[in-house]
Amino acid sequence: MEIREQLSQQRVKYIISSYQLSGNEVDRFNTYLDELLQIYPPPLIELALVETLVDQWSSVPMLRGVEFLTQSHNKLKTWENQPIVSTITPSQFQQIAGLDPTPVFGSTELPPTRPIMRPS
């Protein structure tokens, strides 16, 4: 695995750790996350996680674990068939995730243009 790929995956895991999203099902969650990382680019997973966080903040208690990851995966599946329309700005992403938004949004306000799924 390249260093760039490791860093991208580490960013995803940082978001998960910061918000304790794995819940009580850590092994199942990690297996599911590993599957998603094989299919989707990590920056897109980052965006889906943050978008799902924003969606879930009004829910008490907030979803965690496999259910949270399933919601994020549903966003990813939706983006496979239609343009990615983010409800958050790069600065909001940075405030929520605590990460530089450039890998996710590129150097402009628009999401990067790259394939949603990795080729088989």
Helix content class: 55-70%
β-sheet strand percentage = under 5%
Return Rg in Å.
13 Å
Instruction: Determine the mean pLDDT.
Output: 88
List low-confidence stretches: none
Shape: globular
Largest beta-sheet characterization:
none
**What is the helix tally?**
6
Give the N-terminus to C-terminus distance in angstroms.
Answer: 17 Å
Give the ordered list of helices and strands.
HHHHHH
Quantity of strands, as a count: 0
Task: Describe the overall structure.
It is a single chain. With 120 residues, the chain is mostly helical. The chain has 6 helices and no strands. Helix 1 packs parallel to helix 3. The chain starts with a helix and ends in a 15-residue tail after the last helix. The model has no long low-confidence stretch (mean pLDDT 88).
